[in-house]
Protein backbone atom coordinates (compact mmCIF):
# COMPACT_ATOMS: atom_id res chain seq x y z
CA UNK A 1 0.00 0.00 0.00
CA UNK A 2 1.43 3.35 -1.04
CA UNK A 3 0.35 5.02 2.18
CA UNK A 4 3.17 3.27 4.04
CA UNK A 5 5.53 5.61 2.19
CA UNK A 6 3.66 8.79 3.14
CA UNK A 7 5.10 10.94 5.92
CA UNK A 8 2.05 11.80 8.01
CA UNK A 9 4.00 14.60 9.73
CA UNK A 10 4.47 16.46 6.45
CA UNK A 11 1.77 19.12 6.57
CA UNK A 12 0.62 19.83 3.02
CA UNK A 13 -1.96 22.08 1.42
CA UNK A 14 -4.97 20.15 0.16
CA UNK A 15 -6.22 22.69 -2.36
CA UNK A 16 -9.87 22.63 -3.35
CA UNK A 17 -12.03 25.76 -3.14
CA UNK A 18 -10.67 25.88 0.41
CA UNK A 19 -7.00 25.77 1.33
CA UNK A 20 -6.89 22.94 3.87
CA UNK A 21 -3.73 22.43 5.91
CA UNK A 22 -3.51 18.66 6.29
CA UNK A 23 -1.28 16.43 8.42
CA UNK A 24 -0.03 15.81 11.94
CA UNK A 25 0.92 19.20 13.36
CA UNK A 26 -1.33 21.19 11.01
CA UNK A 27 -2.84 22.99 14.00
CA UNK A 28 0.37 25.04 14.14
CA UNK A 29 -0.67 26.61 10.82
CA UNK A 30 -2.82 28.76 13.09
CA UNK A 31 0.25 30.98 13.18
CA UNK A 32 0.10 31.57 9.41
CA UNK A 33 -3.67 32.03 9.48
CA UNK A 34 -3.50 34.52 12.35
CA UNK A 35 -0.73 36.45 10.59
CA UNK A 36 -2.79 36.50 7.37
CA UNK A 37 -5.82 37.92 9.19
CA UNK A 38 -3.79 40.43 11.18
CA UNK A 39 -2.05 41.84 8.10
CA UNK A 40 -5.44 42.47 6.53
CA UNK A 41 -6.82 44.25 9.56
CA UNK A 42 -9.18 41.39 10.49
CA UNK A 43 -8.54 41.43 14.22
CA UNK A 44 -12.00 40.70 15.68
CA UNK A 45 -13.29 37.15 15.42
CA UNK A 46 -16.09 35.05 16.83
CA UNK A 47 -15.22 31.45 17.67
CA UNK A 48 -18.13 28.99 17.34
CA UNK A 49 -17.76 25.60 19.01
CA UNK A 50 -19.38 23.05 21.32
CA UNK A 51 -18.79 22.91 25.08
CA UNK A 52 -16.11 20.19 24.90
CA UNK A 53 -14.19 19.56 21.66
CA UNK A 54 -12.24 22.79 21.39
CA UNK A 55 -10.64 22.21 24.79
CA UNK A 56 -10.16 18.43 25.08
CA UNK A 57 -8.51 18.23 21.66
CA UNK A 58 -5.88 20.79 22.64
CA UNK A 59 -6.88 23.06 19.73
CA UNK A 60 -7.90 25.97 21.96
CA UNK A 61 -4.48 26.42 23.54
CA UNK A 62 -2.86 26.77 20.14
CA UNK A 63 -5.59 29.01 18.72
CA UNK A 64 -5.50 31.49 21.62
CA UNK A 65 -1.68 31.47 21.65
CA UNK A 66 -1.59 32.83 18.10
CA UNK A 67 -4.57 35.12 18.61
CA UNK A 68 -2.63 36.75 21.42
CA UNK A 69 0.61 36.85 19.43
CA UNK A 70 -1.01 38.69 16.52
CA UNK A 71 -3.33 40.92 18.51
CA UNK A 72 -6.55 39.22 17.49
CA UNK A 73 -9.50 39.78 19.80
CA UNK A 74 -12.17 37.11 20.08
CA UNK A 75 -15.55 36.32 21.56
CA UNK A 76 -16.52 32.70 22.24
CA UNK A 77 -19.83 30.95 21.54
CA UNK A 78 -19.57 27.40 22.91
CA UNK A 79 -23.19 26.21 23.05
CA UNK A 80 -23.44 24.26 19.79
CA UNK A 81 -25.06 20.83 20.19
CA UNK A 82 -25.08 17.79 17.91
CA UNK A 83 -27.74 18.50 15.26
CA UNK A 84 -27.44 22.28 15.83
CA UNK A 85 -30.52 24.50 15.75
CA UNK A 86 -31.38 27.79 14.08
CA UNK A 87 -31.80 29.27 17.57
CA UNK A 88 -28.12 28.56 18.28
CA UNK A 89 -27.20 30.19 14.97
CA UNK A 90 -29.20 33.29 15.90
CA UNK A 91 -27.63 33.45 19.38
CA UNK A 92 -24.11 33.23 17.98
CA UNK A 93 -24.91 35.77 15.26
CA UNK A 94 -26.18 38.26 17.87
CA UNK A 95 -22.98 37.79 19.87
CA UNK A 96 -20.86 38.25 16.75
CA UNK A 97 -22.69 41.39 15.64
CA UNK A 98 -22.41 42.99 19.10
CA UNK A 99 -18.68 42.26 19.09
CA UNK A 100 -18.16 43.49 15.52
CA UNK A 101 -16.75 40.16 14.34
CA UNK A 102 -14.98 40.29 10.99
CA UNK A 103 -14.15 36.56 10.79
CA UNK A 104 -15.87 33.39 12.01
CA UNK A 105 -13.91 30.43 13.35
CA UNK A 106 -15.58 27.03 13.68
CA UNK A 107 -13.81 24.54 15.95
CA UNK A 108 -15.20 21.02 16.17
CA UNK A 109 -16.97 18.53 13.96
CA UNK A 110 -19.76 19.17 11.49
CA UNK A 111 -22.12 20.82 13.98
CA UNK A 112 -19.85 23.72 15.08
CA UNK A 113 -18.40 24.27 11.60
CA UNK A 114 -21.84 24.25 9.95
CA UNK A 115 -23.05 26.68 12.61
CA UNK A 116 -20.01 28.90 11.97
CA UNK A 117 -20.79 28.92 8.24
CA UNK A 118 -24.36 29.97 8.97
CA UNK A 119 -23.25 32.72 11.35
CA UNK A 120 -20.81 33.99 8.70
CA UNK A 121 -23.75 34.48 6.32
CA UNK A 122 -26.04 36.17 8.83
CA UNK A 123 -23.33 38.62 9.92
CA UNK A 124 -23.55 40.00 6.38
CA UNK A 125 -27.35 40.17 6.28
CA UNK A 126 -28.95 42.51 8.78
CA UNK A 127 -32.34 41.37 10.04
CA UNK A 128 -32.18 37.85 8.61
CA UNK A 129 -32.55 34.76 10.82
CA UNK A 130 -31.28 31.20 10.82
CA UNK A 131 -34.77 29.93 10.03
CA UNK A 132 -35.02 32.22 7.00
CA UNK A 133 -31.62 31.03 5.79
CA UNK A 134 -32.53 27.35 6.10
CA UNK A 135 -36.05 27.68 4.74
CA UNK A 136 -34.62 29.30 1.61
CA UNK A 137 -36.31 32.67 2.23
CA UNK A 138 -33.25 34.41 0.78
CA UNK A 139 -30.20 33.39 -1.26
CA UNK A 140 -26.93 34.59 0.25
CA UNK A 141 -24.14 35.73 -2.01
CA UNK A 142 -21.68 36.79 0.66
CA UNK A 143 -20.41 35.73 4.08
CA UNK A 144 -17.68 36.76 6.49
CA UNK A 145 -14.44 34.78 6.04
CA UNK A 146 -14.70 31.32 7.61
CA UNK A 147 -11.86 29.38 9.25
CA UNK A 148 -12.60 25.71 10.06
CA UNK A 149 -10.60 23.72 12.57
CA UNK A 150 -11.87 20.18 12.22
CA UNK A 151 -11.91 17.69 15.10
CA UNK A 152 -13.68 14.67 13.52
CA UNK A 153 -13.14 12.51 10.44
CA UNK A 154 -16.55 12.30 8.80
CA UNK A 155 -18.38 15.39 7.67
CA UNK A 156 -16.09 16.91 5.05
CA UNK A 157 -17.62 20.30 5.89
CA UNK A 158 -14.17 21.81 6.29
CA UNK A 159 -13.63 21.49 2.51
CA UNK A 160 -17.13 21.94 1.07
CA UNK A 161 -19.98 24.46 0.62
CA UNK A 162 -22.63 22.62 2.66
CA UNK A 163 -24.14 23.21 6.10
CA UNK A 164 -27.07 21.73 8.03
CA UNK A 165 -29.26 22.94 10.90
CA UNK A 166 -32.54 21.93 12.54
CA UNK A 167 -35.77 23.93 12.86
CA UNK A 168 -37.14 22.02 15.83
CA UNK A 169 -40.73 23.29 15.94
CA UNK A 170 -41.29 22.16 12.34
CA UNK A 171 -39.19 18.99 12.68
CA UNK A 172 -37.17 20.19 9.70
CA UNK A 173 -33.47 19.55 9.20
CA UNK A 174 -32.64 21.29 5.91
CA UNK A 175 -29.25 21.67 4.23
CA UNK A 176 -27.82 24.68 2.45
CA UNK A 177 -25.10 24.82 -0.21
CA UNK A 178 -23.62 28.16 -1.27
CA UNK A 179 -20.24 29.10 -2.69
CA UNK A 180 -19.89 31.91 -0.15
CA UNK A 181 -19.58 29.40 2.72
CA UNK A 182 -16.49 27.57 1.58
CA UNK A 183 -13.98 28.08 4.39
CA UNK A 184 -11.11 30.40 3.48
CA UNK A 185 -8.72 28.14 5.39
CA UNK A 186 -9.24 24.89 7.24
CA UNK A 187 -7.11 22.63 9.41
CA UNK A 188 -7.19 18.84 9.32
CA UNK A 189 -4.82 17.60 12.02
CA UNK A 190 -5.14 13.91 13.02
CA UNK A 191 -3.75 14.58 16.48
CA UNK A 192 -6.92 16.55 17.27
CA UNK A 193 -8.90 13.31 16.79
CA UNK A 194 -7.21 10.90 19.17
CA UNK A 195 -9.67 11.95 21.91
CA UNK A 196 -12.68 11.03 19.74
CA UNK A 197 -14.77 8.47 21.66
CA UNK A 198 -15.30 5.01 20.13
CA UNK A 199 -18.85 5.70 18.95
CA UNK A 200 -17.92 9.09 17.50
CA UNK A 201 -15.02 7.50 15.64
CA UNK A 202 -17.45 5.00 14.19
CA UNK A 203 -20.36 7.29 13.41
CA UNK A 204 -18.35 10.08 11.81
CA UNK A 205 -16.52 7.61 9.58
CA UNK A 206 -19.82 6.09 8.44
CA UNK A 207 -20.93 9.61 7.51
CA UNK A 208 -18.02 9.74 5.05
CA UNK A 209 -18.95 6.29 3.71
CA UNK A 210 -22.47 7.53 2.98
CA UNK A 211 -21.17 10.68 1.33
CA UNK A 212 -19.38 8.70 -1.35
CA UNK A 213 -22.10 6.05 -1.74
CA UNK A 214 -24.40 8.86 -2.78
CA UNK A 215 -21.90 11.09 -4.62
CA UNK A 216 -20.84 8.20 -6.87
CA UNK A 217 -24.42 7.30 -7.82
CA UNK A 218 -26.39 10.57 -8.18
CA UNK A 219 -27.49 11.83 -11.56
CA UNK A 220 -24.75 14.44 -11.10
CA UNK A 221 -22.03 11.80 -10.61
CA UNK A 222 -18.84 12.16 -12.58
CA UNK A 223 -15.49 10.35 -12.93
CA UNK A 224 -13.98 12.51 -10.18
CA UNK A 225 -16.69 11.79 -7.60
CA UNK A 226 -16.49 8.06 -8.39
CA UNK A 227 -12.67 7.96 -8.21
CA UNK A 228 -12.71 9.62 -4.79
CA UNK A 229 -15.46 7.23 -3.69
CA UNK A 230 -13.35 4.17 -4.49
CA UNK A 231 -10.38 5.45 -2.50
CA UNK A 232 -12.58 6.48 0.43
CA UNK A 233 -14.00 2.96 0.84
CA UNK A 234 -10.58 1.34 0.57
CA UNK A 235 -9.16 3.60 3.27
CA UNK A 236 -12.14 3.17 5.60
CA UNK A 237 -12.11 -0.62 5.25
CA UNK A 238 -8.39 -0.64 6.06
CA UNK A 239 -8.09 1.93 8.83
CA UNK A 240 -11.41 2.08 10.70
CA UNK A 241 -10.78 -1.23 12.52
CA UNK A 242 -7.31 0.04 13.48
CA UNK A 243 -8.63 3.33 14.88
CA UNK A 244 -11.36 1.54 16.82
CA UNK A 245 -8.89 -0.89 18.41
CA UNK A 246 -6.22 1.76 19.07
CA UNK A 247 -7.64 5.31 19.33
CA UNK A 248 -4.12 6.78 19.60
CA UNK A 249 -3.00 5.36 16.26
CA UNK A 250 -2.11 8.57 14.43
CA UNK A 251 -1.53 6.75 11.17
CA UNK A 252 -5.05 5.30 11.20
CA UNK A 253 -6.51 8.68 12.17
CA UNK A 254 -4.57 10.36 9.35
CA UNK A 255 -5.98 8.07 6.66
CA UNK A 256 -9.54 8.19 8.02
CA UNK A 257 -9.28 11.98 8.05
CA UNK A 258 -7.99 11.96 4.48
CA UNK A 259 -10.85 9.63 3.50
CA UNK A 260 -13.31 12.05 5.11
CA UNK A 261 -11.84 15.05 3.31
CA UNK A 262 -11.87 13.45 -0.14
CA UNK A 263 -15.40 12.17 0.55
CA UNK A 264 -16.38 15.78 1.26
CA UNK A 265 -14.83 16.83 -2.04
CA UNK A 266 -16.58 13.91 -3.75
CA UNK A 267 -20.05 15.00 -2.69
CA UNK A 268 -19.19 18.65 -3.25
CA UNK A 269 -18.83 17.56 -6.88
CA UNK A 270 -21.38 14.74 -7.11
CA UNK A 271 -24.04 15.80 -4.55
CA UNK A 272 -26.08 13.49 -2.29
CA UNK A 273 -29.41 11.67 -2.51
CA UNK A 274 -31.44 9.13 -0.53
CA UNK A 275 -29.46 8.36 2.61
CA UNK A 276 -28.97 11.96 3.68
CA UNK A 277 -32.44 13.06 2.55
CA UNK A 278 -34.00 10.27 4.62
CA UNK A 279 -31.71 10.62 7.64
CA UNK A 280 -32.43 14.29 8.20
CA UNK A 281 -36.05 13.59 9.25
CA UNK A 282 -34.80 10.93 11.70
CA UNK A 283 -32.56 13.32 13.63
CA UNK A 284 -35.04 16.19 13.24
CA UNK A 285 -37.69 14.09 15.03
CA UNK A 286 -35.14 12.70 17.50
CA UNK A 287 -32.43 15.40 17.92
CA UNK A 288 -30.34 13.16 20.18
CA UNK A 289 -29.84 10.65 17.36
CA UNK A 290 -26.28 10.75 16.02
CA UNK A 291 -26.29 11.64 12.32
CA UNK A 292 -23.82 8.88 11.45
CA UNK A 293 -25.87 6.26 13.25
CA UNK A 294 -29.01 7.32 11.39
CA UNK A 295 -27.14 7.02 8.10
CA UNK A 296 -25.77 3.60 9.02
CA UNK A 297 -29.22 2.24 9.78
CA UNK A 298 -30.53 3.39 6.37
CA UNK A 299 -27.55 2.55 4.18
CA UNK A 300 -28.20 -1.15 3.43
CA UNK A 301 -31.82 -0.51 2.41
CA UNK A 302 -30.80 2.44 0.22
CA UNK A 303 -28.14 0.39 -1.56
CA UNK A 304 -30.60 -2.45 -2.08
CA UNK A 305 -33.02 -0.04 -3.73
CA UNK A 306 -30.55 1.69 -6.08
CA UNK A 307 -28.09 -1.13 -6.87
CA UNK A 308 -29.89 -2.53 -9.94
CA UNK A 309 -29.52 0.88 -11.62
CA UNK A 310 -25.88 1.61 -10.67
CA UNK A 311 -24.58 -1.92 -10.16
CA UNK A 312 -21.30 -1.50 -12.06
CA UNK A 313 -20.34 1.53 -9.98
CA UNK A 314 -21.24 0.19 -6.54
CA UNK A 315 -19.70 -3.22 -7.21
CA UNK A 316 -16.37 -1.51 -7.88
CA UNK A 317 -16.63 1.07 -5.11
CA UNK A 318 -17.60 -1.48 -2.43
CA UNK A 319 -15.10 -4.18 -3.42
CA UNK A 320 -13.04 -3.72 -0.18
CA UNK A 321 -16.16 -4.32 1.97
CA UNK A 322 -18.23 -6.72 -0.14
CA UNK A 323 -15.74 -8.51 -2.41
CA UNK A 324 -16.60 -10.56 -5.47
CA UNK A 325 -19.51 -8.56 -6.85
CA UNK A 326 -19.86 -8.66 -10.63
CA UNK A 327 -21.94 -5.52 -11.09
CA UNK A 328 -25.13 -7.36 -11.98
CA UNK A 329 -28.56 -6.02 -10.93
CA UNK A 330 -29.47 -9.32 -9.27
CA UNK A 331 -26.78 -8.80 -6.61
CA UNK A 332 -28.77 -6.09 -4.80
CA UNK A 333 -29.67 -8.32 -1.87
CA UNK A 334 -26.10 -9.61 -1.60
CA UNK A 335 -24.44 -6.18 -1.40
CA UNK A 336 -27.08 -4.80 0.98
CA UNK A 337 -26.64 -7.75 3.33
CA UNK A 338 -22.86 -7.54 2.98
CA UNK A 339 -22.83 -3.87 3.98
CA UNK A 340 -25.14 -4.52 6.92
CA UNK A 341 -22.95 -7.40 8.12
CA UNK A 342 -19.87 -5.18 7.86
CA UNK A 343 -21.58 -2.43 9.87
CA UNK A 344 -22.54 -4.96 12.55
CA UNK A 345 -18.96 -6.22 12.65
CA UNK A 346 -17.74 -2.65 13.13
CA UNK A 347 -20.10 -2.29 16.11
CA UNK A 348 -23.23 -0.67 14.69
CA UNK A 349 -25.90 -3.19 15.65
CA UNK A 350 -28.84 -0.78 15.86
CA UNK A 351 -31.68 -0.53 13.37
CA UNK A 352 -34.52 1.98 13.44
CA UNK A 353 -36.61 -0.07 15.89
CA UNK A 354 -33.64 -0.04 18.31
CA UNK A 355 -33.78 3.75 18.60
CA UNK A 356 -37.55 4.10 18.97
CA UNK A 357 -38.97 4.18 15.45
CA UNK A 358 -41.65 1.75 14.28
CA UNK A 359 -44.05 1.14 11.42
CA UNK A 360 -46.26 3.94 12.71
CA UNK A 361 -43.51 6.50 12.03
CA UNK A 362 -42.99 5.57 8.38
CA UNK A 363 -45.69 7.82 6.93
CA UNK A 364 -44.57 10.87 8.92
CA UNK A 365 -40.88 10.34 8.09
CA UNK A 366 -41.73 9.90 4.41
CA UNK A 367 -43.72 13.13 4.43
CA UNK A 368 -40.85 15.02 6.12
CA UNK A 369 -38.35 13.67 3.59
CA UNK A 370 -40.53 14.98 0.79
CA UNK A 371 -41.45 18.37 2.30
CA UNK A 372 -38.42 19.55 4.32
CA UNK A 373 -36.82 22.51 2.51
CA UNK A 374 -33.81 21.52 0.36
CA UNK A 375 -34.26 17.74 0.67
CA UNK A 376 -36.26 17.71 -2.55
CA UNK A 377 -33.10 18.76 -4.38
CA UNK A 378 -31.25 15.73 -3.04
CA UNK A 379 -34.10 13.41 -3.96
CA UNK A 380 -34.27 14.90 -7.45
CA UNK A 381 -30.76 13.66 -8.27
CA UNK A 382 -31.24 10.11 -6.93
CA UNK A 383 -30.47 7.40 -9.50
CA UNK A 384 -34.07 6.20 -9.36
CA UNK A 385 -37.25 8.23 -9.09
CA UNK A 386 -37.79 9.19 -5.46
CA UNK A 387 -41.44 8.23 -5.30
CA UNK A 388 -43.30 8.13 -2.00
CA UNK A 389 -43.49 4.32 -2.13
CA UNK A 390 -39.70 4.03 -2.59
CA UNK A 391 -38.96 6.31 0.37
CA UNK A 392 -41.44 4.48 2.60
CA UNK A 393 -39.95 1.12 1.58
CA UNK A 394 -36.44 2.26 2.52
CA UNK A 395 -37.64 3.34 5.96
CA UNK A 396 -39.60 0.10 6.37
CA UNK A 397 -36.65 -2.07 5.33
CA UNK A 398 -34.45 -0.23 7.84
CA UNK A 399 -36.61 -0.98 10.87
CA UNK A 400 -35.02 -4.40 11.44
CA UNK A 401 -31.95 -6.30 10.36
CA UNK A 402 -32.24 -7.83 6.90
Q: What's the helix and strand layout?
A:
Layout: E1 12-15, E2 19-22, H1 30-39, E3 44-49, H2 53-56, H3 59-69, E4 73-77, H4 86-99, E5 103-108, H5 110-122, H6 130-134, E6 146-150, E7 162-164, E8 175-177, E9 185-188, H7 198-215, H8 223-245, H9 250-270, H10 274-285, H11 291-306, H12 311-317, H13 332-346, H14 362-371, H15 375-380, H16 388-397
Parallel strand pairs: 2-9, 3-4, 3-5, 5-6, 6-9
Antiparallel strand pairs: 1-2, 7-8
What does this structure look like?
The chain is of the alpha/beta class. The protein has two domains: 2-192, Rossmann fold (3-Layer(aba) Sandwich); 198-397, Dehydroquinate synthase-like, alpha domain (Up-down Bundle). The protein is built from 16 helices and nine strands. The strands form two sheets. A seven-stranded mixed β-sheet has the order 1-2-9-6-5-3-4, with helices on both faces. Helix 14 (362-371) crosses helix 16 (388-397). The longest helix has 23 residues, at 223-245. The model has no long low-confidence stretch (mean pLDDT 97). Residues 19-190 form the Alcohol dehydrogenase iron-type/glycerol dehydrogenase GldA domain. It comes from Fervidobacterium pennivorans (strain DSM 9078 / Ven5). Residues 201-398 form the Fe-containing alcohol dehydrogenase-like C-terminal domain.
Amino acid sequence: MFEKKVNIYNVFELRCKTTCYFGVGAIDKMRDISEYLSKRGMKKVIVVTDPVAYKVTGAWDVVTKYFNQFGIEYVLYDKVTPNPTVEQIDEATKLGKEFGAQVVFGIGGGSPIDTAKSVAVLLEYEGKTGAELYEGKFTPEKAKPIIAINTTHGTGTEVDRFAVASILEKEYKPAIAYDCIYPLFSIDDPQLMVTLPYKQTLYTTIDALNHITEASTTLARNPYSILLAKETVRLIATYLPQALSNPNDLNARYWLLYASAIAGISFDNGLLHFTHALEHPLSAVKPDLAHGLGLAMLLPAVVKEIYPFVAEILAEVYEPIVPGLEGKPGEAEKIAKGIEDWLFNMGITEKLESVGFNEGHVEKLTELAMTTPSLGLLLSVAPIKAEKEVIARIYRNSLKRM
